[in-house]
């Protein structure tokens, strides 16, 4: 998964205004206690991060 695809899915699920804030502030257990931004900055793939987001919140099947 490309990073642009990841962010498009985030925007579609959370809305453009909330997606970046959620990625910056919400700590996910599935990312080892990191936020989305921290995980991406530390080199986790966009696919791994998206899978952790999907485990944390209910995402529409078409976006999974």
TrEMBL record:
Source domain of life: Bacteria
InterPro entries linked: DUF3046
Protein name from the UniProt record: DUF3046 domain-containing protein
Upper lineage: Bacteria, Bacillati, Actinomycetota, Actinomycetes, Streptosporangiales
């Amino acid at each position: 998964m490309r990073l642009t695809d990841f962010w498009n899915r985030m925007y579609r699920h959370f809305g453009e205004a909330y997606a970046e804030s959620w990625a910056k502030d919400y700590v996910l257990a599935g990312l080892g206690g990191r936020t989305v931004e921290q995980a991406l900055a530390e080199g986790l793939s966009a696919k791994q991060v998206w899978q952790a987001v999907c485990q944390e919140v209910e995402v529409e099947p078409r976006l999974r």
